[in-house]
Design a protein that fits this description.
The structure holds two protein chains of two kinds.
Chain A lengths: L6 H11 L3 E4 L10 E7 L6 H20 L9 H28 L8 E7 L3 E10 L4 H13 L2 H14 L8 H7 L4 E8 L7 E10 L1
Antiparallel strand pairs in A: 1-5, 2-3, 3-4, 4-6, 5-6
Helix pairs in contact in A: 2-3
Chain B lengths: L1 E3 L3 E6 L4 E8 L8 H12 L4 E12 L1 H17 L3 E5 L5 H13 L5
Parallel strand pairs in B: 3-4, 4-5
Antiparallel strand pairs in B: 1-2, 2-3
Helix pairs in contact in B: 1-2, 2-3
The chains are: A alpha+beta, B alpha/beta.
Amino acid sequence: MNDGLPLENERQMQEEIGQVQIFGDFNEEVPGSEEYLVIGFSPGSMPLKQRWRNNGLSADFLAEYLATFFPGNEEDTIKADKTIEVKSAVSYVANELLENAMKFNDETSQQPISIKLEMHNDRLIFFVKNSLKPKTIAKFQSYIQELLTGDRDELYIRQLEHNVQDENSGSGLGLLSIMNDYLATVGWKFEASSKNPEIMTVTTMVQLDL
Amino acid sequence: MEIKTDDYSVAYEPATQTVNFCGSLRLSGAEEYADITQLLNQVADQAPENINLDLQNLEFLNSSGINMFSKFVIKVRQQGNTGIKIQGSKKIPWQGKSLKTFNDSCLVCS
C-alpha cells in the first residue's frame, strides 16, 4: 500500500525520470570533432518580427565561418565550386532550422535557443535546441513520423496543395526541403528542460554529408 | 510594378514579360510575402502569353519563398492561358536543388 504517497509526488517522480523521446537519426556523441561553433539567442529580448533578420545573418555567418575550413584556390575550380555549394547548403539549412526554432519556441519559457555547427571530416552536423509549446508537440511528432516513414516526394506535393488552400499556417516545407533537396539526415530529441521539468525542449540534429 | 527593400528587389518588365528577383528573400511566412504575391498576381491577371520569372540574381530563398513561387506556378498553370518560364543560375547552388521542385509542382495540375 502506498496510499501515503500523494499524487503530486508521483507526478514529480515521473518528471524527474524524464521522458526522452528520440525520432529519426539522433546521436549527440558523434566522435571526431574538436571544431564547432555555437550561437545562443535569448528569445525574450525583442519581438520576433524585429529579430527575424538575425536568422539569415546567423546562417550566413556560420556559412562564411565554415568556408575558411575549405581552402579553395582560384585555379582549382572543382574545389571552389564545392566550397560555394557547402556554404550555400549551410546557409539554407541553418536559416530554416533557426526560423523553425524561432517560430515554434515557447516564448513564455525563458529557455534560450541555440544552434551548434560541428565540423567533421566527412560531414557537418547541426544541433538546434528550442522549447516547444506543449499543445504543439503531438502535431509536430506526427508530422515527424510522416517525414520519416512516408513518401516525401508525395508529401511535398500534398503540402503544396494544402498551402494553396490554407494561407495561414506555415509552409511545412523547411524540414522537407532539407531532407529532399539537400539529402540531409535528420533526427529529433524531445525532453524536459533540465532547469524546469515543466518545459519541453526539442533538439533537431541535421547531418549533411560532405 | 516594383518592390525594393535593403535585402531584395522584385520588378516587372512589361516589354519582356519578365519579373526580376534580386538579393535575398527570407521573409517569415505567407503574410510577409503578400506584397510579392500580389505583384505576381497582378502580372498574371493581365494574362500575358508568357511570364518569365528571372531568379538569376536571387542569392537566397527560404522555404516560405519556395512555397510562394510554387503556389504561383500552380495558379498560373491552372489558369491555363499563360506559359511560365523560370530562369535560374548554375552559379547559385540552391537553385539547382530547389528549382526542380517548382517543375515537380506542375505535376499537380497536369
